[in-house]
Design goal:
Elements (H helix, E strand, L loop, with lengths): L4 E6 L4 H12 L4 E7 L8 E4 L2 E4 L13 E4 L3 H13 L3 E4 L15 H4 L9 E3 L5 H14 L2 E10 L6 H15 L31 H14 L6 E7 L6 E9 L5 H9 L4 E3 L11 H4 L5 E8 L6 E8 L3 H18 L3
Helix pairs in contact: 1-9, 4-6
Bound molecules: NADP nicotinamide-adenine-dinucleotide phosphate.
The site of NADP nicotinamide-adenine-dinucleotide phosphate has 29 residues, from helix 1, helix 5 and helix 9.
C-alpha cells in the first residue's frame, strides 16, 4: 500500500499556503495527518482540505515530533527559526523563503531542472524566487545543447508575489481611485493600481534590488554555472496573479527557431503559446491557475546572430511557489531521498 506522510503547512492561510492546500488535494498527495499553522491572528480559523475541516494552530515545537514534511510559506524569520527546529527533529523542510537559498548545504531545486540536487539534501530544501523558477526552466534545455553566454531579463511581477495583503491593496486602491478617493498605500512605496514600480525588495549598493540579485544568484546556483553573465530588472505591475518576463539569451552559436521550438516542446513543465498573428502569446490571465510555464514571442535577436528573445508567463503562486514545493516532496518520495 502507498505510504502516507504527516505534513505540517506553516503559513497555511497565506497566498502560497492556500494554493498549496489546493494542490495537496488536487494531486492526491499521500498524507495521514495534516497540521495547518499560521500566525496567532488566524488560530482557530477553519480550513477545508479534501472535505475535512482543520483548525489553524499555533506553531508548537512538539508538532515536529510527529511530522515527515514541513512546508514553510510564511516569512524569512519563521523560515529561519522553524526550518532549523524542524530539520533538527528529522522533518524534511521545504522552504519558500530566501533565507536558506544560497546556503551551500541547502539544495535550491526546480525538479524539471536539477532534481539530482535533492540527493544531497540535509533536511532543508529551498525553492527559488518565483521569477527565478521559470527562467531556470527555459535556460536549462537551451544551455544543454548550445551553452548560454549571457542573459538579460526584465520581469513584470504581479502583486500576489508580495502576499495576500498586496492583493487586497490592489483591489482597494483600484476601487478608491475609480471613486475619486486618495489611494491607501501601505504595501509598496507608491500606489500600485494604474501604475508600475521598478523596485522589488531593498536596493543594494550596486544599484540593483534584492529581487534582481536573487534572480542572478539563484539562477547561477540552479544551473550550476557560477559565472553566468546575467542582468535583471524587476518591476511590480498591477496584476493580481502571474509573473511575466522578457528574456534575451545569447548562446554560443546561432540557433534556428525550429530547434528552439523543438527543445521547449520536449520539456516537461513548458508549453509554447506562440502565434502572434492570431494574437496568441502568454498573458497573466492565460497562465493563472496553470502548472506550465507558457512561452511565446520566440524570435531571433536582430542585433546578435547568436541571440534569441522570448516572452514567458508563469503562475507565481503555483510553479513559482506551491507547485514547485509539492513537486519536490513528490520527487523525494518517488526516489526515496529520505
Ligand atoms: N507569493 C509568492 O508568489 C511567493 C513565491 C515564492 C516564495 N514565496 C515566499 O513564500 C512565503 C509566503 O508568501 P505569501 O505570499 O504566501 O505571504 P502571505 O500571503 O503574506 O502569507 C504569509 C503566511 O504566513 C503566516 N504568518 C505570518 N506571520 C507568522 C507567524 N509569526 N507565525 C506563523 N505564521 C505566520 C500568515 O498567517 P496569517 O494569515 O495568520 O497572517 C500567512 O499564513 C514568503 O517567505 C515568500 O517570500 C512567495
Amino acid at each position: 500500500m502507498l505510504k502516507k506522510y504527516n505534513i505540517a503547512v506553516i503559513g497555511a492561510t497565506g497566498a502560497v499556503g492556500q494554493v498549496l492546500l489546493d494542490l495537496i488535494e488536487a494531486r492526491n498527495f499521500p498524507y495521514n495527518s495534516l497540521y495547518l499553522c499560521a500566525s496567532t491572528r488566524s488560530v482557530g480559523k477553519k480550513l477545508v482540505v479534501n472535505e475535512t475541516e482543520y483548525l489553524v494552530e499555533e506553531i508548537k515545537e512538539e508538532l515536529f515530533n510527529n511530522v515527515d514534511f514541513v512546508f514553510i510559506s510564511a516569512n524569512n524569520e519563521i523560515s529561519k527559526n522553524i526550518g532549523l527546529l524542524a530539520s533538527k527533529k528529522n522533518c524534511i523542510v521545504i522552504d519558500d523563503s530566501s533565507v536558506f537559498r544560497m546556503n551551500p548545504d541547502v539544495p535550491l531545486v526546480v525538479p524539471e531542472v536539477n532534481a539530482h540536487a535533492l540527493k544531497e539534501h540535509k533536511g532543508i530544501i529551498s525553492i527559488p524566487n518565483c521569477s527565478t523558477t521559470p527562467l531556470a526552466m527555459i535556460l536549462k534545455p537551451l544551455h544543454s545543447i548550445n551553452p548560454i553566454k549571457r542573459v538579460i531579463v526584465d520581469t513584470y511581477q504581479s502583486v500576489s508575489g508580495t502576499g495576500a495583503a498586496a492583493i487586497k491593496e490592489l483591489n482597494l486602491q483600484s476601487s478608491e481611485i475609480l471613486d475619486n478617493l486618495n489611494p491607501t498605500i501601505s504595501e509598496y512605496p507608491h500606489q500600485i493600481a494604474f501604475n508600475l514600480i521598478p523596485h522589488i525588495d531593498n536596493f543594494h549598493e550596486n544599484g540593483y534590488t534584492n529581487e534582481e540579485m536573487k534572480m542572478i544568484n539563484e539562477t547561477r546556483k540552479i544551473l550550476e554555472i557560477p559565472d553566468l553573465p546575467i542582468s535583471a530588472t524587476c518591476v511590480r505591475v498591477p496584476v493580481k496573479i502571474a509573473h511575466c518576463e522578457s528574456v534575451n539569451i545569447e548562446l554560443s552559436e546561432p540557433i534556428e527557431l525550429e530547434t528552439v521550438n523543438n527543445i521547449f516542446s520536449n520539456n516537461k513543465g513548458i508549453k509554447i503559446l506562440d502565434n502572434p498573428l492570431k494574437n496568441l502569446y502568454p498573458t497573466p490571465i492565460e497562465v493563472e491557475g496553470k502548472d506550465d510555464v507558457l512561452i511565446g514571442r520566440i524570435r531571433k535577436d536582430l542585433s546578435n546572430k547568436n541571440g534569441i528573445s522570448l516572452w514567458l508567463a508563469s503562475d507565481n503562486l503555483r510553479k513559482g511557489a506551491a507547485l514547485n514545493a509539492i513537486q519536490i516532496a513528490e520527487e523525494i518520495i518517488s526516489n526515496n531521498y529520505f
